[in-house]
Amino acid sequence: MRRLSLRLRLALAGAVTVTLAILLSSLGLAALFGAHVERRALAELSVQLDQVLASIERGPEGQLMLATAPADPRFRQVYGGLYWQIAAEERVLRSRSLWDYEIPLPADSLADGAEHVHTLPGPAAQPLLLIERSATLPRRLGGTRLRAAVAMDRTELAAARADFLRDLTPYSILLAVSLILAGWAQIAVGLRPLGAIRARVVDIRSGRAKRLGLDLPSEVQPLAGEVDDLLAAREEEVARARTRAGDLAHLLKTPLQALMGEAGRLRAQEQAAAADAIEEIAGTMRRQVDRELARTRVAMGARQPAADLAQVIGGLVRVVRRTQDGERRDWQVDVSDGLLAAADAADVADALGALIENAARHAQARVLIAGRRLGPLIEITVRDDGPGIPPERVEAMMARGARADTQGTGLGLAIASDIAEALGGALELRPATPGLEARLTLPAADSLLTDR
Fold first, then answer.
1. Which residue intervals define the domain Histidine kinase in the entry (predicted)?
2. Could you tell me the residue range of the domain that residue 240 belongs to?
3. Same domain membership, residue 386 and residue 325
4. What pLDDT digit, counting tens, does each position of 295-331 carry?
5. Which of 42, 193, 211, 236 is the least buried, fewest Cβ under 10 Å from its Cβ?
6. Cα(226)–Cα(228) distance, rounded to whole angstroms?
């Protein structure tokens, strides 16, 4: 499974966090609103209770009664949602809204004037928010001690809280979306330096720059510094490797020259067979060394931004035309100016030189060289009109030491293939009518800009 990008991880984490925060905040606000509504309801019930106590009088028969009923019409409507009840002198007075129901007050003791708040079942089994108070009537009313209570239906409070939460929901969603979008914008701005680092890495790969530099935000400067130190260390290692390769070539050149000299002395002594064998072995060794040195240079060398193929091919053709094979051929070059390969010009010359020399040697009259752009790649074809090779031998020709004739060591095509692969391309041989066609593909210079 492909790993999520850093940007997407941060965006998802931010979205989840914001959503949870808004959800918890909305629930908290709803709880606060419910508590506020309940406090207001208790304050109103306390006022209603004062009115009820203030309206207690003695009736004509000396019994306690409520001289003036509370003004709220819900007290007079059966199960209207507001209720009052008075327990005194072994009697229970209650509002019409209770009808024949008596609120079961708890058996708790109240100090004179003290209030208690309860949640008790109502006449329709609904929960009631109730406030009760113990009071002593004045002497003119007999000085009787009583318990008075006023209650309201709690479902009204729950409905008010639900309405508040319903009204709050669209604003919460709008706030969450706004915060998520703001978080995404913040992530885009915050991660922009990583895009700059990527562009600089592309510049380093293409040869337009050598270091990331330190003109970056302080959070990524340590990373850039470590990468620059790594690049510097690699350059030093490459320089040492090149020096060692040069020393190795120099050390091998002297023994090979000595072998060639020994072959000359044998030939002078009329030992031609032994001389030919030594020359063939020494020539093969020299070509092998040249091949490995070419591969090492391409693998470890710092690439230039681009190689102009028209200039490279033009130079090679001018040189080959001065050879015995090349001067008798008709050279047709179709390579447009500005066709740039992502490689060092010397590496491209080594790869194409072997193909052009091979075509000059085997052509009958004409050699055609063409170059064109194929998406992120550049294709160079070198075609001769010689005898060619059978299709079944094409793959064998790419093997080390294989050749179509008795001349040379057969390493030219193998070296060209190694260089092409090291540069990110490929070499392919195809039988033509007539002759042989070699197709060399290399990455275009601007294709590095789109590399991941």
1. 247-446
2. 199-302
3. yes
4. 665 555 544 457 888 888 888 888 888 888 888 888 9
5. 236
6. 5
